[in-house]
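thought: fold this chain, then report.
action: predict
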Amino acid sequence: MDPISDSTIRYIWASFDPDGEIAASKDIDSVTKNGTGDFTVNFSGVMQTDNYFATITPVDSTGSPFTIKILSQDDSSCRFICRGGGVSVLGITVVNSVPIDPDIGINFFACC
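observation:
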C-alpha cells in the first residue's frame, strides 16, 4: 500500500456517529462498530508505523464523563472502546464502567 502522506508527520482524522457512520474524515476508509462503544477505525492507507498516538473525543449531550481505552492498534487500524455512566456495586458507584455510544471525533498522529 502507498503511504498516507509523504510528509514527516502523518495526520488523519474522522468524525462519526454512534453507528459508525462517518460525517467527515481525512484518510479514513471506514469505521466498524464491533459492539456498544467498541469501534475499529480503518485507515485508507498504511500509517507506516504502529507507533502513533490517537486523540479521541467523545461528544455527549448530557456532559457525562467518559473514558477511552485503546484495545489494539497497527499500521492500518485502531480499535477502542468508550465507557461512561456508572454502575452501583454494593453501594459504591463505579464511574465510567458502562460501554456507551457517543458521537466521536478522532485524530491520529505519527512521526516517521
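thought: worth noting. The radius of gyration is 15 Å.
final: C-alpha cells above.
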